[in-house]
């Protein structure tokens, strides 16, 4: 078990490396770069010496006039720049050219808030999907099952942004929650306080529901199908034949078995939720990283985009790691027979 | 004599979309205290439904419409429960279920949860019905594991079911069933999924436990051999009705009912006369002059010393097991699946290959088919006079070889693609090998269907609309499509019901004669092999230990393993009850414990010695042949 754990941790390193290469290549793919475009723009407006000097400085700093390999190495921090080793692995996320600020400062609070929203969404998906899935499977073809199935399909079919606007309207009319953002305007740029946290919590409800609906709907379907399969199995009858009360037999055997795909999904859910939240974040004007990422990609603001993509990749890889470890803890077949091949 | 269970006029109906099915239709019987009652019948006769009704674990669409199931608990004289009236979830029923009546299922592989240790699952039954502390529970469980024959019960407590063999899983299942010392044990086909030798051990265990705990057993089975060795009373069921009931002696001495007589004639037995045919309960109607026979071009079978059609010399297959560590996988050990096997098959004969599961039978057949690659050895196939080195074939010549050797699988359910029609399934080999035009192929497929006794109007159907026996016939038709000379049949009847088994065996026999086929017939059922094979090869732990013509082998088995295998077969005859005392535990399948001159271990490697009359036995070199024959 310990070897497995260490093995999984070590495997994450090459995975992230490969992702960083892919990210870098994809960002470099479109012709031109932000600085050249910006330079053209400046030239057409009449030059400004200080701006030109700044551009030159960045060129030097990030090896933008050198080969892509060198650029990559500097970005990652494998190769010393003018300030010595200073790249992603040293914690320097680079400069956002569009904002003319270090990426870290642009992102600021947003990273934490994104994490908060996405984490809450996943929690929401699990909390809602689990009981409904179990109910649907154990009461197959009942009115409740059909009802949840219908709602689930609606959830899958409704465009998120539409749902977002509808919910926003009602949240505003009935609960007086201000439209858009993650907190009331008065708390923006204020230090954290209990009231501010409560305001954030109030404002999170709508986005979490909106981002989570489709994930919840598909999770319900999956859990229902899995559990239905498991309920047919012989060991469930064995448990009944022992005289185990119904609810206990259900929880101890088939539900435990059908948890596997539930947990294996943690890793898959993260990128889904994050990419799904970009448009919703635009619509609801949430201060998350989604809109920033979109903007950065459009502007070819390469360090901004690269850092954000790497952050998402890290989340996914860590999510996968957590789900793998949980699976091994939960399922002795994975723990004990892993690695043996025939 | 007091009864533990009394079933009176029980009727169970299944209400499904297609209408109402009477699964059990007015059944009455009793189970006397401390006795074994066998419930016999084909699948679909309603015997399992009765067991579910007694346990009150009927599936949702099933309803008890009338009748009573009276349970007299020997521990509470004078008190009885009518299980048919009790609610399945009521407290009384839950106390009875698992506490006073418990059940063992057929499939030891799936009836235990793979996620919980067997100790957990066994002690759960105990804690539900008796107030015990965790330590007491664990202690009782370990004692119970010892009682059912686990070699190391303390360790076994913490193992998961998938770490155990089929036999040990069934023992764990038995331990779970008897840990509360029930008054009645229902055994629903407890040994059907197991090898004969393991079956004998499990039956022996059940009898011993019955004596020790004084419980009654309701044994549900279709195997009359098991019944003859175990039962005191017998109930024969057909289509939800009782056909006949009586004591063991009555039933076997003078079967009255035509159904029972037919059932007895359908089972292969050891003492069948040469040339005697099994009489299936439902005969397959075949079109005797199928055109396929005319164009079949059977291989001419010359009498006398023609060269063997298949000659296998020193064939060896090693599997390496891998162990993964921090730095990738590396080979950890080797498993010798097939060890220096040599044999031959003459054209037109049927060679039976017998052995317990895991002995390498299937691996051997896959090596011959080139579905697996051999580690060492030689396989020569004689293609009507032209020798082919099978293991050296590549590309086109390997593709051509597939024309000549075909395979019939064990499981008729998973060997047919559920998403292909019967027509697609049977014509697929023809398409792959580009035989004929589309019209000719269609003609061939129709003829194949009539050849195996199926209506060609079924061609557009999908496999799920056929029964197990019909599916197996589709599998046979597929194997015959390319007009092979050699057919490898891997346990073709072991997944089928007794009554169907006779149909398929007869069909295979007829086809062999009509098409001049040669069979390699793999089975663990000696009676089946006796019925169909000319010569028999016995395999154990990857080695052949004895080959002989079948009359010789059954009359004069020499190798201790063969002897044990023969002794473990239950015969449908109360005069030949299994002699459990003869069944030495694991010893007979461990080559290191075989007595001299048979011992095979690191130091001695016995060879196959000809002891005359085509009888070969694996013994040490320089063994005196005359001594062995005694």
TrEMBL record, chain A:
InterPro entries: MetI-like, MetI-like_sf
Entry keywords, A to Z: Cell membrane, Membrane, Transmembrane, Transmembrane helix, Transport
Entry superkingdom: Bacteria
A UniProt-annotated Pfam family: BPD_transp_1
Membrane-spanning parts: 9-29, 115-138, 150-177, 197-220, 262-284, 304-330
Membrane topology: Multi-pass membrane protein
GO BP terms, alphabetized: transmembrane transport
Gene Ontology cellular component list: plasma membrane
Keyword Transport: yes
Subcellular localization: Cell membrane
Residues covered by the ABC transmembrane type-1 domain: 111-327
Family: Belongs to the binding-protein-dependent transport system permease family.
Listed name of the protein: ABC transporter permease subunit
Lineage: Bacteria, Pseudomonadati, Pseudomonadota, Alphaproteobacteria, Sneathiellales
From TrEMBL, chain B:
Example GO biological process: peptide transport
Superkingdom assignment: Bacteria
InterPro entries: AAA+_ATPase, ABC_transp_ATP-bind, ABC_transporter-like_ATP-bd, ABC_transporter-like_CS, Oligopep_ABC_C, P-loop_NTPase
Membrane topology designation: Peripheral membrane protein
An example molecular function term from Gene Ontology annotations: ATP hydrolysis activity
Subcellular location: Cell inner membrane
UniProt keyword annotations, A-Z: ATP-binding, Nucleotide-binding, Transport
SUPFAM superfamilies with a match to the protein in the record: P-loop containing nucleoside triphosphate hydrolases (SSF52540)
One GO cellular component term: plasma membrane
Principal place of residence: membrane
PANTHER family associated with the record: TRANSPORT ATP-BINDING PROTEIN
The protein's name in its UniProt record: Dipeptide ABC transporter ATP-binding protein
Organism the protein comes from: Sneathiella chungangensis
């Amino acid at each position: 078990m310990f070897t497995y754990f260490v093995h999984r941790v070590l495997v994450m390193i090459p995975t992230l490396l490969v992702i960083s290469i892919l990210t870098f290549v994809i960002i470099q793919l479109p012709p031109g770069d932000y600085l050249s475009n910006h330079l053209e723009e400046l030239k057409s407006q009449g030059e400004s010496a200080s701006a030109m000097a700044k551009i030159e400085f960045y060129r030097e700093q990030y090896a933008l006039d050198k080969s892509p390999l060198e650029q990559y190495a500097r970005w990652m921090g494998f190769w010393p720049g003018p300030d010595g080793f200073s790249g992603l692995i040293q914690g320097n996320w680079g400069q956002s050219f569009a904002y003319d600020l270090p990426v870290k400062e642009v992102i600021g609070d947003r990273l934490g808030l994104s994490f908060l929203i996405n984490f809450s969404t996943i929690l929401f998906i699990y909390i809602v999907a689990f009981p409904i899935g179990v109910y649907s499977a154990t009461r197959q073809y009942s009115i409740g099952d059909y009802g949840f199935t219908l709602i689930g399909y609606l959830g899958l079919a409704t465009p998120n942004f539409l749902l977002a606007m509808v919910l926003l309207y009602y949240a505003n009319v009935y609960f007086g929650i201000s439209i858009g953002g993650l907190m009331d305007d008065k708390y923006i740029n204020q230090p954290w306080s209990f009231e501010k946290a409560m305001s954030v919590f109030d404002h999170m409800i709508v986005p979490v529901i909106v981002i989570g609906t489709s994930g919840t709907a598909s999770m319900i379907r999956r859990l229902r199908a899995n559990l239905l399969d498991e309920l047919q199995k012989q060991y469930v009858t064995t448990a009944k034949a022992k005289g185990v009360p119904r609810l206990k037999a259900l929880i101890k055997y088939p539900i435990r078995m059908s948890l596997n795909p539930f947990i294996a999904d943690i890793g898959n859910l993260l990128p889904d939720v994050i990419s799904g939240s970009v448009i919703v974040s635009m619509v609801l004007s949430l201060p998350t990283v989604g809109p920033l990422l979109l903007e950065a990609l459009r502007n070819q603001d390469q360090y901004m985009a690269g850092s954000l993509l790497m952050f998402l990749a890290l989340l996914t890889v860590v999510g996968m790691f957590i789900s793998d470890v949980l699976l091994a803890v939960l399922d002795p077949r994975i723990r004990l027979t892993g690695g043996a091949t025939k | 004599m007091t009864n533990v269970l009394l079933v009176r006029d029980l009727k169970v109906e299944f209400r499904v979309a297609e209408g109402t099915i009477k699964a059990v239709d007015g059944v009455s019987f009793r189970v006397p205290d401390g006795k074994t009652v066998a419930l016999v019948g084909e699948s679909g006769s309603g015997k399992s439904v009765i067991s579910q009704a007694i346990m009150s674990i009927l599936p949702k669409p099933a309803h008890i419409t009338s009748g009573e199931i009276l349970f007299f608990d020997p521990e509470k004289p004078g008190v009885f429960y009518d299980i048919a009236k009790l609610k399945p979830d009521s407290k009384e029923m839950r106390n009875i279920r698992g506490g006073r009546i418990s059940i063992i299922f057929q499939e030891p592989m799936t009836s235990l949860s793979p996620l919980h240790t067997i100790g957990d699952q066994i002690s759960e039954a105990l804690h539900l019905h008796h107030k015990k502390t965790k330590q007491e529970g664990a202690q009782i469980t370990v004692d119970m594991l010892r009682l059912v024959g686990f070699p190391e019960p303390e360790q076994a407590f913490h193992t998961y079911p998938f770490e155990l063999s089929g036999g040990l899983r069934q023992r764990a299942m038995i331990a779970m069933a008897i840990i509360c010392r029930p008054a009645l044990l229902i055994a629903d086909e407890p040994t059907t999924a197991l090898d004969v030798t393991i079956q004998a051990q499990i039956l022996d265990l059940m009898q011993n436990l019955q004596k020790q705990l004084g419980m009654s057993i309701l044994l549900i089975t279709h195997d009359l051999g098991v019944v003859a060795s175990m039962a005191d009373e017998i109930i024969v069921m057909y289509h939800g009705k009782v056909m006949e009931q009586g004591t063991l002696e009555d039933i076997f001495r003078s079967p009255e009912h035509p159904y029972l007589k037919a059932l007895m004639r359908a089972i292969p037995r050891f003492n069948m006369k040469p040339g005697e045919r099994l009489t299936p309960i439902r005969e397959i109607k075949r079109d005797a002059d199928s055109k396929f026979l005319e164009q079949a071009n059977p291989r001419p079978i010359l009498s006398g010393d023609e060269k063997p059609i298949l000659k296998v010399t020193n064939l060896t297959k090693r599997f390496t097991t891998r162990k993964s560590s921090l730095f990738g996988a590396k080979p950890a050990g080797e498993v010798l699946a097939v060890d220096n096997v040599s044999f031959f098959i003459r054209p037109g004969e049927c060679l039976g290959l017998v052995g317990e599961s895991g002995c390498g039978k299937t691996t051997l057949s896959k090596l011959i088919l080139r579905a697996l690659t051999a580690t060492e050895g030689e396989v020569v196939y004689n293609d009507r006079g032209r020798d082919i080195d099978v293991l050296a074939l590549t590309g086109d010549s390997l593709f051509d070889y597939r024309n000549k050797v075909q395979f019939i699988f064990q499981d008729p359910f998973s060997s047919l693609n559920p998403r292909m029609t019967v027509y697609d399934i049977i014509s697929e080999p023809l398409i792959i090998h580009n035989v004929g035009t589309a019209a000719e192929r269609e003609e061939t497929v129709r003829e194949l269907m009539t050849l195996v006794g199926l209506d060609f109007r079924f061609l557009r159907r999908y496999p799920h609309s056929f029964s197990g026996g019909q599916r197996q016939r589709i599998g046979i038709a597929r194997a015959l499509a390319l007009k092979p000379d050699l057919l490898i049949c891997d346990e073709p009847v072991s997944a089928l019901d007794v009554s169907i088994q006779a149909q398929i065996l007869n069909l295979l026999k007829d086809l062999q004669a009509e098409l001049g086929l040669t069979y390699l017939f793999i089975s663990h059922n000696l009676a089946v092999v006796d019925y169909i094979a000319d010569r028999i090869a016995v395999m154990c732990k990857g080695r052949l230990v004895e080959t002989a013509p079948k009359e010789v082998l059954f009359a004069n088995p020499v190798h201790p393993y063969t002897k044990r295998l023969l002794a473990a077969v239950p015969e449908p005859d109360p005069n030949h009850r299994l002699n459990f005392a003869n069944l030495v535990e694991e010893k007979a399948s461990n080559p290191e414990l075989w007595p001299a001159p048979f011992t095979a271990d690191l130091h001695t490697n016995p060879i196959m010695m000809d002891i005359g009359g085509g009888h070969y036995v694996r013994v040490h070199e320089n063994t005196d042949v005359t001594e062995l024959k005694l």
